[in-house]
Design brief:
By secondary structure, the protein is an alpha+beta fold. The chain is built from 13 helices and 22 strands. Strands 3-2-1-4-6-5 form a six-stranded mixed β-sheet, sandwiched between helices. A five-stranded antiparallel β-sheet has the order 7-8-11-10-9. It has a five-stranded antiparallel β-sheet with strand order 12-16-19-20-21, with no helix packed on it.
Length: 444
């Protein structure tokens, strides 16, 4: 295994001469194998251990275990205890996201203070496959279907070539000790649901599933690199910086973009989502001039020969749209105020009020956007199997013509979750399986 480990490092040029490394070691089997393999090399390294204080005495035992192992190996040991739950509450993020933020900020500070060049993480092939499915279910571009990357800036992952089974086999054969994380056996977290429920089924369908997925991830990554190079060249060729913003040559777009997805990739830096990119592409195909489209920060005007992209001035887009972040508890758009709250389902009570929208928290992608509805908007109304145009819904509900322009929609990742004041989406409704509820109350 050591030979494969070193070959993988060499293949991906993860380590250069005279570099010093900081190993993230939790005490679990993956990081203990990483520590053992590094200790068999001549690479200079130290260990960093995070105590997030989320599992009571277990967290303290993990810390003591890693510390004693480092003392045996005569390896420099860094530790820090974090008030993770307080950080999550103060910053309006999940506990997992809080732990991630705290972890990497501390790692970066250690690198700056002690001169470590790279941070070494113990992700393996199973983690990468799980990430693929996690991103697939959330909705993603090709960028998100590559799994976990071997190298990102200072972060390197030399165990990505090994499966979890191989890591466990090595640990047992070498007589290594490690700590078990009780939360790994729970299916509360989405990743563990994929790990314990989905992947075993796929392995039954194909005993070589892991090998096939490893090859698939490699192909997707190579395809991404080729595509990314193409989009970068197209951007350089078609986009020009102007005094007021940017202009994009329509003829080069029509020639270089074979689909709305290509245009979406080109417009990513201007924060246009996939749905809007498709609308722009369709408008280009119809030779429409004068149409205007908006992202949270930019306006795009289809002119005769160019797409004119300008940065919206502070406050200019407030009348057009509202962005709601996960940490927000109150937001305003025009004369309308939204009161926002998150509940565990056991603490939540259904209130049948058209001004209240309640949704399955895990199905939402923040930031959400609130904007006026427009022609062509469609969604799956609560209780319906198919989709319906918002315009048709408003007709069916006999909304007066004078009130229609004032109707707003709430959007998650390009999909309408709520025609505010009238109907929520079937796709985002609260069900018996919902663990957390996110609720918005509209008030004029």
């Amino acid at each position: 295994m050591l030979d494969r480990f070193l070959e993988f490092i060499k293949k991906h040029a993860l380590i250069e001469a005279n570099e010093r490394f900081l190993l993230a070691v939790s005490g679990g089997v993956d990081s203990m194998v990483l520590l053992d393999l590094f200790s068999e090399t001549s690479y200079p390294f130290a260990v960093a251990h995070c105590n997030f204080q989320l599992r009571g005495k277990e967290s303290d035992w993990d810390e003591k275990f890693v510390k004693s192992t480092c003392e045996e190996l005569k390896v420099t040991f860094h530790k820090r205890r974090f008030e993770t739950k307080k950080y999550a509450k103060d910053h309006g993020v999940s506990t997992q996201m809080a732990a991630r933020d705290l972890r990497f900020k501390w790692f970066e500070s250690l690198c700056n203070e002690f001169g470590y060049d790279k941070i070494v993480l113990a992700h393996h092939l199973d983690d990468s496959i799980e990430t693929f499915f996690l991103n697939l279910t959330r909705g993603t571009s090709l960028r998100g279907l590559r799994g976990i990357q071997v190298e990102n800036d200072k972060l390197i992952r030399p165990l990505l070539t090994f499966s979890k089974e191989e890591i466990l086999h090595y640990a047992k054969n070498e007589g290594l000790k490690w700590r078990e994380d009780s939360s790994n056996q729970e299916t509360y977290y989405k990743r563990n649901l994929i790990r314990h429920e989905l992947i075993p089924v796929l392995e039954k369908l194909n005993p070589d599933f892991q090998k096939v997925m490893s090859e698939n991830l490699e192909k997707l990554n190579l395809r991404f690199q080729t595509s990314e190079k193409y989009y970068q060249e197209l951007y350089k060729d078609a986009v020009t910086i102007t005094d007021s913003g940017f202009k994009i040559d329509k003829s080069k777009i029509l020639e270089g973009c074979q689909s709305g997805y290509d245009l979406y990739e080109l417009l990513r830096s201007f924060y246009f989502n996939y749905t809007t990119a498709l609308e722009i592409y369709e408008a280009l195909g119809n030779a429409s001039s004068g149409k205007v489209f908006f992202s949270p920060d930019y306006q795009l005007l289809i002119d005769r020969d160019f797409l004119i992209v300008t940065l919206l001035k502070s406050g200019e887009n407030e009348a057009l749209s509202l962005q709601i972040d996960l940490k927000d508890t109150k937001s305003n758009i025009g004369s309308e105020t939204y009161h926002l709250a998150e509940y565990h389902q056991n603490d939540w009570t259904l209130i049948k009020d058209p001004s209240i929208g309640a949704f399955d928290f895990d199905k939402l992608h923040f930031p959400l956007v609130v904007r006026p509805w427009k022609e062509g908007d469609s969604f799956q109304p609560l209780g319906m199997k198919g989709t319906k145009l918002v315009s048709d819904l408003l007709i069916d509900l006999k909304v007066p013509l004078v009130h229609k322009p004032k109707v707003n929609v709430m959007i998650s990742n390009g999909e309408i979750v709520w025609v505010i004041g009238f109907r929520v989406s079937e796709k985002f409704k609260v069900t018996d399986k919902t663990e957390k509820v996110w609720q918005a109350t509209s008030q004029n």
